């Protein structure tokens, strides 16, 4: 069924993260084995057993490079991703820069040229990873100010640092501009689609409808599956890793501070746009099925979408696959018994089995692992495509967040939780970087984004017009819907 952005009441069962992370208690039991805090990077992940917990100060200390030390890339990603649950990115970068200044004595004159020249490339590497992985953080002018300040301090030892910074900022600005264009285009598409959705004729008439249908635009299931994959990958390309955690920014129980809400910062816009796309595809499938006046035509459309769903499965596009199945499972479609009796459903039941929610979507997760393995060993972009069922991914992350405390009773950050979060988000980030290997068909893409769709009431009305109500409840609803439409017209 159509999805909503995750909330506390959206899900009922926990999802597939590591069993030992189901709550904070097991982490507490291992607390004695965790490394003690130290003033330098000696306690880093690379120097001993992985953290299960540590104070935020220790975690930040281990993020700071020195002349002879640089944190593992996985550690950098994990902390940059999760630290925003406790402090804003600008404060994190400020603390990193302060520690760099103190450790490298960058506030003294003259500078230790040999030492700074060893340190310079490492701090630039950290800043490059930050700007490339979390570019939206640098929409905040404070972030850019911190970049320039730290480079200003080390530049006397090597003027090439300014050139490197300028190149970094140029790439960052290009990336931010592309992100803004993408967000604006998605917003316009959403407005356009919603504004025409109510213009569909409420009562189906015998003459051929003026509105085009999907089969008149594309009658090849594989081609439509390819174009759906284009849409999916385009949406994924605009979703940053921070969007997965920003929704969970909340009051820190230790210091009582309230971080800016995610909605206020408008940092879930891409994630929310992707959920809206899933819902639109569900309703588009249901609309296309309910629109034709004859059951033979409706059966043809159902069989077409079954074939499209199968091609999506073969490609590795599980999000479109689930949207299509959800659209066909909507009550206005599923109640069309005469139509379904004319449909060849063997392939549909196989696909439905693959996406069966039983056992926490066990069949789907098995198929996803297979697609992920294929992607890792692939020689072409075609084989690298992995588009997960997005709402289930959000559900997994939601339950990881809800099932594990951010902090332990001793005040330490539950770093084990955030390593698992980074693993899940990092896997998604790898999948979304794949370039779509299929040629675009602008006519099909335009139709997918802008074709009118029925509202829920419109779907029920079209369904009742296609096959008459079977019981009194349906008859009463049909009567009420007809009355409402006549009142509006």
Explain this structure to me?
- The protein is mainly alpha-helical and 489 residues long.
- The protein has helices at 25-29, 56-61, 73-82, 89-104, 113-133, 141-154, 160-196, 214-217, 221-237, 243-246, 262-265, 269-290, 295-315, 318-329, 331-334, 337-341, 346-354, 358-376, 381-384, 390-403, 415-432, 442-450, 456-466, 472-488.
- Helix 12 (269-290) packs across helix 14.
- The protein starts with 24 loop residues before the first helix and ends with a helix.
- The relative contact order is 0.13.
- Residues 26-35 have a biased composition (Acidic residues).
- InterPro entries: Ras-like_GEF, Ras-like_Gua-exchang_fac_N, Ras_G-nucl-exch_fac_CS, Ras_GEF_dom_sf, RASGEF_cat_dom, RASGEF_cat_dom_sf.
Radius of gyration (Å): 26 Å
Strand fraction equals under 5%
> Structural class, from secondary structure content?
mainly alpha
User: Could you tell me how far the N terminus lies from the C terminus, measured between alpha carbons in angstroms?
Assistant: 30 Å
Helical amount among residues, as a percent range? 55-70%
Task: Output mean pLDDT.
Answer: 83
Apparent shape? elongated
Characterize the largest beta sheet: strand count, sense, and whether it forms a barrel: none
Domain Ras-GEF: 220-469
Biased composition (Acidic residues): 26-35
Protein name: Ras-GEF domain-containing member 1C
InterPro entries: Ras-like_GEF (IPR008937), Ras-like_Gua-exchang_fac_N (IPR000651), Ras_G-nucl-exch_fac_CS (IPR019804), Ras_GEF_dom_sf (IPR023578), RASGEF_cat_dom (IPR001895), RASGEF_cat_dom_sf (IPR036964)
